[in-house]
Design brief:
This protein has 16 helices and 2 strands. By secondary structure, the chain is an all-alpha fold. It has one domain: Up-down Bundle (Na+/H+ antiporter like fold), CATH 1.20.1530.20. A two-stranded antiparallel ribbon has the order 1-2. Helix 5 packs antiparallel against helix 11. The chain starts with a helix and ends in a 6-residue tail after the last helix.
């Protein structure tokens, strides 16, 4: 049995046993609790912002940098270069997903930002960062829950892991340039190298070493679940710090989170609707169509948060804006899963 086949079986077994873990299932609730707890900390410990900022190298906060690395590293373990050779096997859904990820979603995000948050430069950048980052991690779970084609899912996520390294910075630069928003491209590239390049390199190396020394079964069923839990703890810790450092801004401007949520949610609706329609037009079968809709409509909120922090700082409006992408990601993706199942029953796609 090949490595890719074993990994796919492992993923299926893991999701079959629990579908979503406890933390993943209620991620939106944990995010809300972290927002509240962070704001409380900002009022109880006014000096927390200065204390965290003191532990920085240049624009990068060491505590946040460590947390963001731990957030990104597990996603990079999903990369399977061997799977990319299957791109020519059934290219239509892969091509449709790439078009959605790199042409439709980013420009829909830009349009929503221009309509709903004009004049809010950092919120515009937050939306651009989110809409320009295709997901590489939790879509594996969403795809299995929807009973989609997991081989296509693995190929797509592996492809996204590579393309985001080369495409993310140019896309963000293009869209912010259209809005005449100056973005330090050096910091943008640094954030890509630190928060994607390093976790990817470490992921590839550690994966090979651990599989060769401990075996693939141990790697997939013991190691990956552990680092996955560490990733979630790091994510929630990052959110507590984010909101503790900008609690005063939120207390004085609670409308900002609502304001950025409107274009994010409407953008989700438009992109999801586009993907459902295009998969119907191109006559995809359900198992391929639902994966195309899920991956083509999702965002890599970890890199968006990391990039916002690198460019604007921990306590910035941009960083807080990107966290709302995380806040809405889970309920939106779950909705797509159940909508896909419903449309399948109604015979919307071929079976």
């Amino acid at each position: 049995m090949s490595i890719s086949e074993t990994e796919e079986i492992s993923i299926k077994k893991e999701t079959d046993s629990k579908e979503l873990g406890f933390f993943e299932k209620y991620l939106t609730l944990w995010v809300a609790i972290c927002i509240f707890f962070g704001i409380i900390l900002s009022q109880v410990i006014p000096g927390i912002s200065q204390a965290i900022n003191a532990l920085s190298i240049g624009q990068i906060s060491l505590p946040i940098g460590i947390c963001l690395f731990l957030m990104m590293y597990p996603a990079m373990l999903n990369l399977q270069v061997s799977e990319l050779k299957k791109l020519g096997k059934n290219p239509k859904p892969i091509i449709l997903t790439i078009i959605s990820n790199w042409l439709i979603a980013p420009f829909v995000g830009l349009l929503m930002a221009r309509i709903f948050v004009p004049g809010y430069e950092q919120l515009i950048v937050a939306i651009i960062l989110l809409s320009s980052s295709p997901c590489t991690a939790m879509v594996l779970v969403w795809g299995w829950m929807a009973r989609g084609n997991q081989e296509q899912n693995v190929v797509n996520t592996s492809l996204n892991t590579i393309t985001i390294i080369f495409g993310y910075a140019p896309m963000v630069t293009l869209l912010t340039g259209i809005q005449n928003i100056p973005v330090d491209w050096v910091l943008l590239l640094v954030s890509i190298l630190i928060f994607i390049g390093l976790p990817l390199l470490f992921g590839v190396i550690s994966k090979r070493i651990l599989i060769s020394s401990k075996g693939e079964d141990w790697f997939n069923n013991r190691y990956r679940p552990i680092v996955g839990k560490i990733s979630i703890v790091a994510l929630l810790t990052t959110l507590v710090v984010l909101f503790s450092m900008n609690g005063e801004v939120l207390i004085n401007n609670p409308d900002l989170l609502l304001l950025v949520s409107i274009p994010l949610l409407l953008g989700f609706v438009i992109v999801v609707g586009y993907n459902i329609l295009v998969t119907k037009i191109f006559k995809l079968k359900y198992r391929e169509a639902i994966i195309t809709v899920i991956i083509g409509s999702s965002s890599h909120f970890e890199i968006a948060i990391a990039t916002a922090i690198a460019i604007y700082g921990i306590g910035s409006i941009a960083a807080l804006g990107t966290t709302m992408g995380l806040f809405w990601e889970v309920p939106v993706m779950l909705s797509i899963v159940y909508l896909g199942r419903y449309l399948r029953k109604k015979g919307f796609w071929k079976t």
